[in-house]
């Protein structure tokens, strides 16, 4: 089969079109013909950092985690899938799991679900990593109807899904963005937009919560921005983040009695730990999407499998709005 391989890691490491053996289905897995795959920040980090990241596969590497496609063969012991089923998931591209920048993938049946009937293959491929991340963070933060929820980075990959899910759960949702296009998308998706460049945390907390703070803060920016999340959170509030590889003074969190939830959704893939929970979440996401409450936003660009390098560059440019997707 055709695959795009990285022979050597590094800044702008080239993807090389290669012919590799088509993988064979094995027990507990399904063989999927991939229709589309999406690019995530972690994919670009692996390409750039290689073995400096403990989750990177050995080179030559077949990257890509998210996919949507059609089942072509079903392994022994797999109950819920048949040949011809349209599925989606996040199931490769790290450690010893071959990725999605290819024509086929053999995916653990626990890491996939049937795709939503009202989503295209490209839309379905945009969801798994970011939507599982958003869902896990909000659920671990104990989101409830009627709460005030702040999403940092609501026009980004994880953020634009988190604010839709928070709305689905019945919350009153607010979200930060840094420009007119970002804020327009946030408002279109049903949240109240906050321009973090023109409003201080103190100002928007006063404006939207009467100074009490937000019950849940979902921080898809993380790092140094976590201090803003602590400032924005209510007393005994909940903060979920996807980026916490940093040194930080937790004193503000202490004096407000905050709970911090770190979401690292790659753990089931990396450690073969509770993988079926990802399948369960994906099935719930399919229901939410089919109810009309979750629509992934796709960047305006189009890329073929051979243009994987350009797709990665598009995400890294910071100019993408929504998810960058490759048509396999």
UniProtKB/TrEMBL annotation:
PROSITE patterns listed in its UniProt record: QOR_ZETA_CRYSTAL
The answer on whether this UniProt entry bears the keyword Cytoplasm reads yes
Q: Name one GO molecular function term.
A: RNA binding
Where does the record place the Enoyl reductase (ER) domain?
A: 10-326
**InterPro entries with a match to the protein in the record:** ADH-like_N (IPR013154), ER (IPR020843), GroES-like_sf (IPR011032), NAD(P)-bd_dom_sf (IPR036291), Quin_OxRdtase/zeta-crystal_CS (IPR002364), Zinc-ADH_QOR/CCCR (IPR051603)
Q: Where in the cell is it found?
A: Cytoplasm
Q: Which GO terms describe its cellular component?
A: cytoplasm
Key words of the record: Cytoplasm, NADP, RNA-binding
Q: Which domain of life is it from?
A: Bacteria
Task: State a single Pfam family of this protein.
Answer: ADH_zinc_N_2
- Keyword set includes Oxidoreductase: no
Quaternary form?
A: Homotetramer.
Query: Mind telling me what this protein is named?
Result: Ripening-induced protein-putative Zn-containing oxidoreductase
